[in-house]
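Memo to structure team: turn this sequence into structure tokens by end of day. - J.P.
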Amino acid sequence: MHAVPVSQDQELFAGDVLLSLAENGRLVLDADEAEARITELRRTLAFGHALLADPDYTGPEARLREILDELPKYVEAFQLATKSFTPR
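Reply from structure team:
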């Protein structure tokens, strides 16, 4: 595996790594496993958005927004990963 250069002003999130791996055929999942992961990610997204809409939420809003922006990349990566899967 090769190191990915990252400038000091740019943070590389795991979603970017997963997308890159999926696009290059290095992240491969069968459809059932991918769907289970995608379902959980979508639940997490819904829960996070509900937290942001809750006027009583006192957690770290900026960090939660970063996470909610990042999770769709995971969903996309897992969707791409199923297209590379070839059962043995």
